[in-house]
Amino acid sequence: MAKQLVILGGGESGVGAAVLAKHKGYEVLVSDGGSLKEVYRNELDAAGIEWEQGAHSVDRILEADEVVKSPGIPEKNELIKQIRKKGIPVISEIELAYRYKGDSKIVAITGSNGKTTTTSLIYHILNTGGLNTALVGNIGESFARQVALDPKPVYVVEVSSFQLDDIITFRPDIAVLTNITEDHLDRYDYNFENYIRSKFRIIENQKKGDYFIYNMDDEVTMRYIDQFKINSNQLPISMAHENNGAFIKDGEMYVRTGDDFMSMSVYDFTLKGKHNQYNTMAGSLAGTTMEIRKEKIREAVQTFQNLEHRMEHVATIRGVEFINDSKATNINSTWYALESMDKPTILVLGGVDKGNDYSLLMDMVKEKVKAIVCLGLDNQKIHAAFDGVVPVIVDTASAQEAVTAAFSYSEKGDVVLLSPGCASFDLFKNYEDRGTQFKKAVIDL
After folding, report:
1. Does the keyword Cell cycle apply (predicted)?
2. CA-CA distances (angstroms) from residue 380 to 29, 238, 375, 383, 384?
3. What pLDDT digit, counting tens, does each position of 216-235 carry?
4. Minimal CB count within 10 Å: which of 56, 340, 424, 435?
5. How open is the CA angle 16-426-357, to the nearest 5 degrees?
């Protein structure tokens, strides 16, 4: 009899998992407590996969041989508690995909900040170097759907801590940990250490021939790294120490793996800002370990295009530049965005707070920000932090209002930066929707 697989959550990762499971002969049910997008309903119908929305058939779910859990569902969810109590194995979509990836290689990237940029850069480097590669995970298509419908010899996978929470055998050939800062603490019982342990799970199944790329300038990573058994080859990146991975010294990036060596001026990177020099080091190292030629890595680093919603230049209107950094959903991302500003800044901030500590931004705000435009339903914490520090703080409840207000406080030579530091689902569908509405409002000015 076919194995019964229940997939909780019918978003991109859930539907991708369903398609792969169906391909592999499982009896599949997709169950979503909310509503499924029409595009996903059509895809499931076309594949002959059973689905339900708006409620869960609990008795049936508790009969499953295995459950694939969407990364968005927390452990404290009642249904998950019942599934755990019954001893039914719970896995993530990346674990299911890993089972069926065959001989393909995996480069997996996690971290609190910079992971999407680093993932996209590694994909660009491997493609430029001639490898047939898929970009999957939190970015683009689900890993499972790609394995089912269009398998590739190499997968570059962006993975979140939530996905790593439910792995068993998932093992990347190359694991990249960009950095660890406080994020999503609401999901980890407000215990930072739980979140750190989740991030380090990316290396727990690695073997001798695998690689682990990490940032040796990141305080949290270095404080905890010795607590984990690491079997893979460790390749650090740094701006402060020469090492056997990659480092930057006097404006030159040096990448070393074994006897091989390449160097390149940081002024040739298309990605600007100090944080992006770390991302570029990580990407170049990953390329070297995948045996991409130095000239190709150099070419890729010089031709990489930045992502939509990540420090994206929208327009310059009457001398005021507008930047869309809607992907900044935590305080550290906003800190990095402000760090790279070299003009007086009107900061658009706010949304759904994940336990943010705004004091981390204080020095940057004092130095660079002339006005804060709040874009969220509850802005009390932002006012509490910055009232009296910044001359102007206003509340707005739509992208259009925020853009109009920001423009009215700006003058020629200023920059309006949307870098909210918060999740978006109080006023928007997701960070992409927030960024798209912001860009539309700028163009409509």
Report:
1. yes
2. 43, 38, 12, 5, 6
3. 999 989 999 999 999 999 99
4. 340
5. 100
- Residue 255 burial (CB count, 10 A): 24
Residue with tokens 């660009």: 124
263 is annotated as contributing to ligand binding: no
The answer to whether the annotation marks 114 as part of a ligand binding site is yes
pLDDT of 64 reads 95
Tokens, residue 291: 């045996």
Give buried/exposed letters for 50-73 (b at 16+ CB in 10 A, else e).
ebbeeebeeeebbebebbbbbbeb
* E strands, 111-251, in order: 133-137, 154-158, 174-177, 211-215, 233-238, 246-249
Burial 140-161 (b: 16+ CB within 10 A, else e): bbbbbbbbbeeebebbbbbbbb
139 within 8 A of 119, measured Cβ to Cβ: yes
Residue 274 assigned ligand-binding role: no
For the stretch 50-66, pLDDT in tens is 999 999 999 999 999 99
pLDDT band at 31 (very low <50, low <70, confident <90, very high): very high
Q: Which residues contact 9 (CB under 8 A, 6 or more apart)?
A: 32, 69, 70, 72, 73
Distances (CA, A) of 101 to 2, 248, 287: 21, 36, 21
Q: Is 37 annotated as a binding residue?
A: no
Residues forming beta bridges with residue 155, ordered by sequence position: 106, 134
Percent of the chain's residues with pLDDT above 90 = 73
Contact 358, 381 (CB under 8 A): yes
Looking at the DSSP assignment, which residues form a beta bridge with residue 28? 5
* Run of H or E residues at 82: helix 78-85
Q: Buried b vs exposed e over 109-125: b needs ≥16 C-beta within 10 Å?
A: bbbbbbbbbbbbbbbbb
Count the neighbouring beta carbons within 10 Å of the beta carbon of residue 191.
10
Asked whether residue 112 is marked as a ligand-binding residue, the answer is yes
Beta partners for residue 369, in sequence order: 345
User: Per-residue DSSP letters for 33-80?
Assistant: SS---HHHHHHHHHTT-EEEESS--HHHHTT-SEEEE-TTS-TT-HHH
To the question of whether residue 111 is assigned a binding role by annotation, the answer is yes
Confidence at 113, pLDDT banded by 50, 70, 90: confident
The pLDDT of residue 164: 92
Q: Is there a binding annotation on residue 119?
A: no
Residue 189: predicted pLDDT: 67
In angstroms, the first-to-last Cα distance of the chain is 62
